[in-house]
Design brief:
The chain is of the alpha/beta class. It has 2 domains: about 120 residues, 3-Layer(aba) Sandwich (Oxidized Rhodanese, domain 1), CATH 3.40.250.10; about 230 residues, Rossmann fold (3-Layer(aba) Sandwich). It contains 14 helices and 12 strands. The strands form 3 sheets. The chain has a 5-stranded parallel β-sheet with strand order 1-5-4-2-3, covered by helices on one side. It has a 5-stranded parallel β-sheet with strand order 7-8-6-11-12, sandwiched between helices. A two-stranded antiparallel sheet has the order 9-10. β4, α4 and β5 form a beta-alpha-beta unit. The chain is globular.
Length: about 375
Amino acid sequence: MLFRTANLSQLAQFDEIIDVRTPAEFADDHIPGAINCPVLSNAERVTVGTLYTQVSPFEARKVGAALVAKNIAHHIETRFHAQPKSWKPLVYCWRGGQRSGAMSIILAQIGWAAHKLEGGYKTWRRDVLDKLENLPDRFNYRVICGATGSGKTRLLEALAAEGAQVLDLEGLARHRGSVLGGIPLQDQPSPRWFDTTLVQTLQGFDPAQPVFVEAESNKIGRIALPLALVNATHGGECLLLDTAREARIALLLEDYRHFTEAPDTLIERLQPLRPFHGAKKMAHWEHLINGGDFAALVAELLALHYDPTYLRSLGQHFSGLQRAQLISLQDTSAEAMRGIARELLASLQKDSGTRGASAHSNS
């Protein structure tokens, strides 16, 4: 065997990480920073798999070997041709088997210090899941609570701009977390890729500093949050935004203005609310939409659906809500939010300094 193997702890030692799985597998999840150089395309893998099950493993291997050889040759002629002899690539496939083995052997025969990842992608995935069971408990969370449209996401953005540690779960999930929460022209990531980016984000935080996060349910769109993270945030200290109703309506009209240009889409997205509010109320909301009275629609959705649902959920799940710091807002502009963020961080720094001085004097 000409190639050598490596484990996850050695990733930083390589010049390039090469994922030889299909584009579909790569899109679902991959090691961050890896490039996709498939040895079988999506269609080719289906063809080989069909031959394996319906004809024979021998026939499948013959066809597969020819396809793999052709695709590796293409990558050498294009992606790898300019690499110097000192180039050190790490190659992986699904479980560290034939696909990565074929690529590694050929690269090693050329003279590059090719290594194959032990256990392949499955090893990476197990490591991500292990970290998701333990990483969330390392941090002290400040949970930003507040009814729909109160400016929670804007405050998170302001805190991040001021240098605070922010866990933007809706940003990672590419969804705002409600029946209308889909972001235009953006699909949600796969659950696996969400897990990977979540781990990468958590690993970048300093446990000695607080992490600000928005109060979320167990799911954001089709993304289920890891149980350990849900439990950890549910036990965090809470900040409760009390935002004026007019400001909330204005914020929502701004953030969801794409629906005002697509009323039929808005009506369709509201259909999951039919079992809760009935056909008569849905017909009334459709009338408001078709008449362009979106401010009235938002006001009714808040009063009849979002506020009761959100506040009920908060009381059930966030233990720190009764002790929450109340922040009253009349203005949710970026400038106003930056001011609130600076005040919050200054207060935290002052409290930290006071505790430090107290501990010093007691010692």
